[in-house]
Specification:
It is built from 12 helices and 6 strands. With 284 residues, it is an alpha/beta fold. A 6-stranded mixed β-sheet has the order 1-6-5-2-4-3, with helices on both faces. It binds adenosine monophosphate (AMP) and magnesium ion (MG). The site of magnesium ion has 3 residues, from loops.
C-alpha cells in the first residue's frame, strides 16, 4: 500500500499554514483514469478491513468532513461509502441546529451520533462548525443562549480545548478519529457555485446563503486554520486534502481510511476450538 496521504497529514498543527498545501495538487496523477487501478485495489482492501472491524467489535472509526461551501463533502462521502458495506457504517449530516439542539451544550448533538464499536461513523460537518459559523457571525452565537457571563474573549480557545480533550477522551475509549478538510481555492468555489446555477440538475444544491457566505471566505479560512492548529494531534490528525480535483480528494480520503484501518491490526475473533468441535458434531 502506497502512502500517498502522508504528505497531507497534520498531526502537530502549531505551525500549519494554508500555503503548505496547493488545492490543485494531484501529485503525479494526470487525471481520474490514472487513479482507477489504485482506487480499485484500495476499495478491495478497505472492504476486507471493514469486515474485520465489524467482526472484532472493539474499535470504531469516526471520519469528520469539513470544507467551505461546494468543497465536495457530499460527493467525497458518497464515493467512499460506496466502497463500504452499508451495514457497518452510518453518515450523519449536521445542518443549522434546531431549537432542541440549541437548548444543549454545543457538543450534545454530535456525541449522540458517534459510531458504536465495530462501526464506521461519518460526520458531514461536525462540532467544528461551532468554532466557525458563530465565530464568523456573532448573531449565530446569540442563538446558542449561553449565560452572558460565560461568553468572553477566550470562548473560541476554550471550545477548541474542549474539542481536543473530547477527541483525546474518545481515542482512549477506542474511537479512532480522522479529520478531513477538503481544501478548494476560492476560484474553484466560484466555478462550482456557478455550475449550481447553470446546470438544472444541480440547481437544488444552490442556496443564496452560499453566495452571502462567500463574502466571508477569508474569515472562514482563518477560523478553520485556528481550529486545525489547535486540534491536530497524533491521535486525531487532520488531513488537508487538495480538493480542486474531486477525483484526487477521493483518492486521498480512501487511502487514509484504508491505511488507518490497516494500522489497527484487526483480527477476526477466534472461537474456542472445543466449542467449534461440539457444534460441528451437533450439525452432523
Ligand atoms: P449544507 O451542508 O449545505 O446542507 O448546509 C448546512 C448549513 O448548516 C450550513 O450553512 C452550515 O454552516 C450550517 N450549520 C451547520 N452546523 C452549524 C452550527 N453548529 N451552527 C450554525 N450553523 C451550522
Ligand atoms: Mg450548502
Amino acid at each position: 500500500m502506497t502512502h500517498l496521504e502522508k504528505r497531507y497529514r497534520v498531526a502537530n498543527g502549531e505551525r500549519f499554514r494554508w500555503s503548505d498545501i496547493d488545492p490543485q495538487d494531484t501529485l503525479d496523477f494526470a487525471d481520474a483514469d490514472a487513479t482507477r487501478a489504485l482506487r480499485k485495489q484500495n476499495a478491495d482492501a478497505m472492504l476486507e478491513l471493514q469486515d474485520r472491524l465489524y467482526a472484532q467489535h472493539r474499535w470504531s472509526l469516526l471520519l469528520i468532513f469539513q470544507a467551505v461551501d461546494a468543497g465536495g463533502k457530499n460527493s467525497t462521502i458518497r464515493e467512499v461509502v460506496s466502497d463500504l458495506n452499508p451495514q457497518g457504517c452510518h453518515v450523519s449530516s449536521f445542518k443549522v441546529p434546531t431549537d432542541e439542539e440549541l437548548d444543549h451544550d454545543f457538543l450534545w448533538r454530535y456525541l449522540r451520533r458517534l459510531p458504536e464499536r465495530g462501526m464506521i461513523g461519518i460526520f458531514n460537518r461536525s462540532y467544528y462548525e461551532d468554532v466557525l459559523v458563530p465565530r464568523v457571525h456573532p448573531e449565530v452565537l446569540q442563538k446558542q443562549r449561553l449565560p452572558p457571563k460565560l461568553v468572553g474573549k477566550h470562548l473560541w480557545t476554550q471550545r477548541l480545548q474542549d474539542i481536543r480533550a473530547t477527541e483525546d477522551y474518545l481515542t482512549r475509549n477506542g474511537v479512532v478519529i480522522r479529520k478531513f478538510f477538503l481544501y478548494i481555492s476560492k476560484r474553484e468555489q466560484r466555478k462550482r457555485l456557478l455550475a449550481r446555477l447553470d446546470e438544472p440538475s444541480k440547481n437544488w444544491k444552490f442556496s443564496p446563503d452560499d453566495v452571502r457566505e462567500r463574502a466571508f471566505f477569508a474569515d472562514y479560512m482563518r477560523c478553520h486554520q485556528d481550529a486545525i492548529r489547535k486540534t491536530a494531534t497524533n491521535q486525531a490528525p487532520w488531513y488537508i486534502v487538495p480538493a480542486d480535483h474531486k477525483w484526487f480528494a477521493q483518492l486521498i480520503v480512501a487511502s487514509v481510511v484504508t491505511r488507518t484501518l490497516s494500522q489497527l491490526k484487526l483480527e477476526y475473533p477466534k472461537l474456542d476450538r472445543r466449542a467449534l468441535e461440539t457444534a460441528r458434531k451437533a450439525l452432523r
